[in-house]
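Many introductory courses stop at the sequence. We go one step further.
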Amino acid sequence: MKTLIVNADDFGFTRDVNEGIAHAHRNGILTATTLMANGGAFDHAVRLAQENPTLDVGCHLVLVGDGCSLVAPYRPLPESVSKLAAAIYLGKMDVEAELDAQLRRIVEAGITPLHIDAHKHTHLLPPVLNAIVNVARRYGVRYIRRPFDLPLGAASPRIPFSKRQTSHGLSLMRGRFRRILDANGYLATDYFAGFQVTGRFETAHLAGLLAELPEGVTEWMTHPGFCRDELSAARTRLKKSRERELEALCADEVRAALQANAIHLSGYRQLL
């Protein structure tokens, strides 16, 4: 059977992103989202999660980019993955304490996180994955994203060579990543997709890509949202593209593609 989980990253980033995610769940094929505990619109996201109880909510762990640590002295986070790696290896950042604080804030807000992923896929760094393994166990989270993209065929939008090369490079970590999850009793979907096409796919692309979905459980990573004043002012490259993704997730053409290809929509709670 072909099963699809459609997850929206960045819940809690801005209010217009939050509202786009809720809209895509109520009116489209979005089944899950991951919440940024240090996001500027965290409280707004929590309210929307309470208003949409069928939306699966997990944790979008943030160790890089805008925002500050949730651990005293609440310093700004490293600006890039390379700076994060340097901070970890130089002993300037207690990753496990930070991840624990982020998960704890979500749980204390009344949300039981069902799955974990990480902003910029920083959980591919061995020290970060090791910390997640420890922290997720404390809070009973079973699913961790294994972010290795499916090969994309003719239906995919034009993808820059550099993006394809990055995806190929990440795939070299696949074996070690799976061994750590398996050894510690964590679960992951059979497949993952969305990395290479982030900010690039539209309705026709998504409908076409669904026709290529393999048997098994696939997580599709998305970034929907309304591009209003708050998002326009934010430091992110994903702005207008969020509205295109939102439109695709709510399109009749995409729903028809699900039916035509006998794809079952699911969330993480159904799998558990």
